[in-house]
């Protein structure tokens, strides 16, 4: 799976890249919506989640005005 996978890429299969497992808790209704996209695109859930994250990150980078970034700040 490409690291920079987008939803459009799911129509054309791409090469595999090393992946890590990330366990997160998300609302049930969000999982249901992701499952709908999985069915619509006939893709794997992991592929769809990576593509959705990349789409969101891309939009944040291009239009993230007014959002304070936490890069460089130390967590307490």
Give structural attributes.
mainly alpha, 76 residues
Q: How many H/I helices?
A: 2
* Oligomeric assembly: single chain
Mean pLDDT: 79
Stretches where pLDDT is under 50 for at least 5 consecutive residues are none
- What value does the Rg take, in angstroms? 15 Å
Topology, number of strands: 0
| Shape, per Cα inertia axes | globular
Structural class: mainly alpha
Strand content: under 5%
N- to C-terminal separation?
34 Å
**H-E string:** HH
Describe the structure in brief:
The protein is mostly helical and 76 residues long. The protein has helices at 28-41, 45-63. The protein starts with 27 loop residues before the first helix and ends in a 13-residue tail after the last helix.
What is the topology?
Blueprint: H1 28-41, H2 45-63
Tell me what the structure shows.
The structure is a single chain. With 76 residues, the protein is mainly α. It has two helices and no strands. 43% of the residues lie in helices and 0% in strands. The N and C termini lie far apart (34 Å). The model has no long low-confidence stretch (mean pLDDT 79).
